[in-house]
Each structure stands twice: as structure tokens, then as C-alpha cells.
Amino acid sequence: CTPFRFQAMWMSHPDFPKFIHANWSIGDGHASQKSARLKSSLISWNRQVFGCLFQKKRRLLTRLAGIQRKLCLGHNPYLCDLENELTNNYNMLLEQEELFWLQKSRNTWLKEGDKNSRFFHLSTIVRRRRNKLEGLNNDNGDWITDKTGMKHIIVDYFQCLFCTSESVGDYSLLPQLFPHLEEVDLVGLSCGVSNEEIKESLFSIGGLKTPGPD
């Protein structure tokens, strides 16, 4: 099952802010419950309202090509207005596609607005290939590439790592080497987290980055 990911391109839809506000306000419950409900609503909204980006792009290009063929035969004010409207819609789709590939490629050092959709697409492919595990060496030094063999190597390694009963090293002196915190630091660590600290942490997260467990 493909994991759920928030798509930055959704925010370009004119009805998206109202949709989020309406769905977040439904019912009671804490943030995690509201997030779960919103996730389900977003999946349906993406399928029924936002639609497939690439299908919409193909349909728009087909309509524009048909309009332009008719305009070649003679001027038509209605078709001219429709062409301008569809061209604006197509430009919006290009911006959404750029955000889509930018988010997938994770090349956040690039500035948005460059329409580097092809570059972002290729970056995504390169990253996937780089992260792919091609093979592993077993204990005999043999290079194993089949998935079953690689799975056995990984399982055996961690079983050996975490199931050993031997004690390694002398830890009797470690408590004496640890630095001691001052009383004021201990009090600070036991204090609750303020709303200002939460806001500062949330707002410091990059727009297209995924926060870790910390």
C-alpha cells in the first residue's frame, strides 16, 4: 500500500483552504484523530476533485490543439477567449507539475518557478536507483543479489548482533565520567513545553520537508 503523502500542489487549488478548514472542524477529538479523518478526506478529495494531474494536462493539450486548428480557419472571439482560459489553466498545471516533481526529487535547494519538471523527474529516478540495494556480501565473501538470500543475510546479521550474551567492555567507571547538570538545568528539563516553543519548531520546518520523530 502506498503511504499517504501531503502534496504541495494541492494548495494551489482555489477551494483547498476551505476544504481543510471544513474537514478539520468536523467532530471532536485530539489532533491525531482529526489528522486521521483529514487524511481519509484528502484521499477522496484528490481523486474526485483535484484529479490526476497528467490526465488533465493531456486533455487540456488536446482541447488547445483543436481550438487552434479552428482558429487557423478564421477568427472567432469565443474561441479566442476559450483559448486564453485554457492556456491559463495549462500554466497552472505546469506549476502544479513542477511542485509535484520538486517534492518527489527532494532537491529543495532549487528555487521554485524554474519549470524544471524534467530535471526533477530525472532526479527522482536517480535517487531511487541510488537508494536501491543491489546486493550483499555473505560471511563467505560471496556477492548475493537475489532477494531471499539478501533477506537471510540481514536477518542473520541482526540476530547475531542483538542475541549475543557476551558482555563487552568495562562500564564500571562510566557513571564517574558523566558530566553533572546544574540545578537550574534540571529544572529547565522538567518544565513543560510552551505553545511558543511548539510554534517555533513547527514554523522552522521547511515547506517541502518531512519532520522526523524528534
Briefly, what is this?
The protein is an all-alpha fold.
SSE blueprint and pairings:
Elements (H helix, E strand, L loop, with lengths): L15 H9 L6 H20 L2 H19 L5 H29 L11 H15 L4 E2 L5 E2 L2 H16 L11 H4 L5 H8 L4 H9 L11
Antiparallel strand pairs: 1-2
Features:
mainly alpha; 9 helices; 2% strand; two-stranded antiparallel ribbon; 214 residues
Number of strands: 2
Low-confidence stretches: none
Characterize the largest beta sheet: strand count, sense, and whether it forms a barrel. Answer: 2 strands, antiparallel
Number of alpha- plus pi-helical segments: 9
- Proportion in helices: 55-70%
Radius of gyration based on Cα positions: 27 Å
Taken as a percent bin, the fraction of beta residues is under 5%
- Gross morphology is flat
Q: What pattern of helices and strands is seen along the backbone? A: HHHHHEEHHHH
Distance between the termini: 25 Å
The spatial strand order of the largest sheet comes to 1-2
Overall residue-averaged pLDDT value? 79
Helix/strand/pairing category: mainly alpha
Descriptive account of the structure:
Helices cover 60% and strands 2% of the residues. Helix 3 (53-71) runs antiparallel to helix 4 (77-105). It has a two-stranded antiparallel ribbon with strand order 1-2. The protein is mainly alpha-helical. Among the domains are: 1-51, no CATH class; 53-133, no CATH class. The two termini are 25 Å apart.
